């Protein structure tokens, strides 16, 4: 893993948070939580509304399906856990998707709590509808092992003579002839040797939302002031590179279940015998608790559901803001960045007023660990090369909760999660709130807890630092994923998402990649 300490977060008591990225063949798909879900339909329609023809829910659904295969469970498992799914949401693609053969015994009570909260139960969460549903995992059910970008896409073609993969390599910069990319300068981390690899057709950047903007900036493509401060010659002043950074801020509530089930979500950690027998069961039969990733229950809900009494006031507050008041300093120098944010804000106002777009996530597998994640942050962060060490890790600044609307959204989210744990359905467990603690009730009391450790500005879902938007809106790539101002550079990763969708990101990144493959093949007549 790359583990990059963020810049101190002013609105989180100057704490620094680790920005994670996969440092392995297969990237984030090797180390993520394996949730294989999708955002609501408006999340992807928003991309088209921002000037990207061919990028919307209906178009991307084709590629969501193309990338994945869902395998239903055995009939007795489906009946035991009341699993629901819809095969029409999937295709016959290489990423294997499934639900585990085992769930913790607390789960039925949590589904009862969803019913008690009148949360819409969705048969298939991958068809773009908000509600609560079973979240599939990127698990190959045949072997009960992780299905990753490596196992799905790379391993089957390793013997191709025209494919060479090198590891332990750092891209130092793109090599240009005038403004046409010719190759990349590479550094072997082990030997310190540098060399150049050349491309005949085009370069594809897929280094992720943290390192893709860094590579562009090191290559002279990005905000001029950032490049000049680091001593990099400016080739193209492209202000969107490294701006518009988004992630999912998350509140980590914790409950003690005083009357929990005998076997529960803490058993693998606290019960050595249960851990050993569970591991032996997995090795022998590929069944039991070790077939789980990080839980499969989730509620993705609109603002109007979690805050029916005050969502309109939150929307009005966002609408009335001076756009530059809570944006990074860089925005003041580039009207196009402000215009892009204003276009996004208009969409967010519509989404926050809609019953069709989720902004709240509550994932559950039983137990008292109650993660509550904000799906549509209004703050925007930055990723810039470090002027004191440009070739080192970039400066990652979430600008976490800089926009006070994010705090309002988190307050509503925390209160809604508390309602879930206060249901009659969960009362059988006798839950006692440990974090932040039931004594914190007022807005000011909760805000102090939010700032002092209850909330992280990241859910390890970095996105949007090379946004696909028109250049006059601060975009970095066009709808063909090609970087503005230079030739033969295409970006294919989470950095191109103009607005982060309300979901775990891996399924969306696979869909982007499948669509990008068709775009590139069409571009070259293949």
Automatic annotation (TrEMBL):
InterPro entries: FAD/NAD-bd_sf, GMC_OxRdtase, GMC_OxRdtase_N, GMC_OxRtase_C
Keywords noted in UniProt: FAD, Flavoprotein
UniProt KW Acetylation keyword: no
Signal peptide residues on this chain, from the entry's feature table: none
Molecular function per GO: flavin adenine dinucleotide binding; oxidoreductase activity, acting on CH-OH group of donors
A GO biological-process term: secondary metabolite biosynthetic process
Residues annotated to bind FAD: 24, 171
Entry-linked Pfam families: GMC_oxred_C, GMC_oxred_N
Active site: 461 (proton donor), 504 (proton acceptor)
Keyword Flavoprotein: yes
Domain of life: Eukaryota
Domain Glucose-methanol-choline oxidoreductase N-terminal: 22-45, 208-222
Family membership noted in the UniProt record: Belongs to the GMC oxidoreductase family.
Protein's UniProt name: Alcohol oxidase
Species of origin: Aureobasidium pullulans EXF-150
Lineage of origin: Eukaryota, Fungi, Dikarya, Ascomycota, Pezizomycotina
